[in-house]
Amino acid sequence: MRLHRLTSIIILGWSVTLFADDKNDTAPILCQGHYHTEAEAIEQLARMAATYSNLGEWKDRAARVRKQILVGAKLDPLPKRTQLNAIVHKKREYDGYSVESATFEARPGFYVYGSLYRPLGKPGPHPAVLCPHGHARGPGGGRLRPDQQYRCATLARMGAVVFSYDMIGLGESLHHGWDHDHKQALTLQTWSSIRAIDFVQSLDDVDGERIGVTGCSGGGTQTFLLTAVDDRVTVSVPVVMVSAHFFGGCHCESGMPIHKTADLETNNAEIAALAAPRPLMLISVGGDWTKNTPVVEYPYIRNVYSLSGHQSHVENVHYPGREHGYQYLKRQAMYPFMVKHLGLDSKGVFDAETELYDETKTTIETPEQMYVFDESKPYPASALKPGASVPF
Ligand SMILES: [Zn+2]
Q1: Residue 360 burial by Cβ neighbours in a 10 Å radius (0-12, 13-18, 19+)
Q2: Tens digit of pLDDT for each residue in 217-260?
Q3: How far away, in angstroms, is 251 Cα from ligand 1 center?
Q4: Going by C-beta distance under 8 Å and a sequence separation of 6 or more, which residues neighbour residue 139?
């Protein structure tokens, strides 16, 4: 509890200052970047774990954390779901999969730019996997990067419909003039992810009951935030981002008061635990803020899963000698988890001898091939101007 000065009065010659309970203080408390030390993070996890000792108490706490995220992100109550007005076109066929350029309006005039990967030659309906990306800036960044394409194509070749979509101001969003430095970035990206589930569930060939999501770094943040606030996610794989001592360095991750209020403190390890009891894999490395995952974040989250007897649903794959990113080895760790929990068909992709998933059938596309809007489909006149405040 914090106190603030209400007024000063004079009583019998003494100056007395009155303080009021600060419950109504709406000043935001931001936990950004390295808001606290590794040791303080461990102490915070212990404080949080002491607030529940059974499944019912955890569910109560989880509901409060979820509510705090939505309130902090200015998504409470959830906005009205407006027409998606989806466009899916420019189909390209490759070895075992196809790619189409796809977009929808998360809010009227605010477009989410993506690529829709679909399996070829496999019977549907198919599970869907959302693939947000990290802060890969500059031309050719965002969803346009090769490492993102390998991941999406390989999942599609195993039977998933994959939607890979740009952050605000990266990839095609940058191409159309948007900047990532937008004050609504956290709100817009979280809402865009929720609407991305609506979009894939609207597709005839998708089984809307099987929805996976995986992303790395800033895309990892999008992964665990979406999983925390939307129960339609059934499998979640946040990569190199779930940390109890690091809250994300970008305003799209920690620029709004989702972690701490006068009433409740949390961190990204606990937010990731809101996935319980749904399957969750944490992929971590020694070279960034996920270096303690096997001994700090994973045990905390596993304890949450154990309250419902689902500890087998959470896994951690840790690479002590590796650096930040969603490189080949980390994708190799993610694939079998998605295969197992989404019921994908790895035949022709998984090699039992090498125990590796073959990514070599991926055709790397150019940005121009991937853009939604070009001379074949001009940029809509009704689109919001780059940098505009998006009405909710
Ligand atoms: Zn960001």
Answers
A1: exposed
A2: 999 999 999 999 999 999 999 999 999 999 999 999 999 999 99
A3: 6
A4: 174, 175, 367
Strand pairing class (280-285; 314-319): parallel
Q: How far is the CA of 215 from the centre of ligand 1 (A)?
A: 13
How far apart are the C-alpha atoms of 108 and 315, rounded to whole Å? 39
Distance 255 CA to ligand 1 centre (A): 9
What gap in Å lies between CA 349 and CA 342, rounded to an integer?
Answer: 16
CATH homologous superfamily of 87-370 equals Alpha/Beta hydrolase fold, catalytic domain (3.40.50.1820)
Expressed in angstroms and rounded, the spacing between residue 249 Cα and the centre of ligand 1 is 8
Give the pLDDT confidence of 149-180 residue by residue, as tens digits: 999 999 999 999 999 999 999 999 999 999 99
3-state SS assignment for residue 31: coil
Instruction: Compute, in angstroms, the gap from residue 108 CA to the centroid of ligand 1.
Output: 22
Q: How many residues does the chain have?
A: 392
Q: Is the peptide bond before 125 cis (omega within 30 degrees of 0)?
A: yes
* 235 touches 342 (CB < 8 A): yes
Within a 10 A sphere around the Cβ of 245, how many other Cβ atoms?
A: 24
Distance 187 CA to ligand 1 centre (A): 11
Sign, CA torsion 58/59/62/63: negative
- Taking the centre of ligand 1 as the mean of its atom positions, its distance from the CA of residue 250, in whole angstroms, is 5
Least confident of 20-24, 174-178, 192-196, 331-335: 20-24
Q: Is the peptide bond before 77 cis (omega within 30 degrees of 0)?
A: yes
Please, which residues bridge with residue 100 across strands? 116
Residues 6 or more apart whose CB falls under 8 angstroms from that of 296 comprise 38, 41, 42, 45, 244, 269
Q: What is the pTM of this model?
A: 0.93
Query: With contact defined as beta carbons under 8 Å apart, do 264 and 256 qualify?
Result: no
- pLDDT for residue 358 is more than 50: yes
Instruction: Round to whole Å and give the CA distance between 116 and 103.
Output: 9
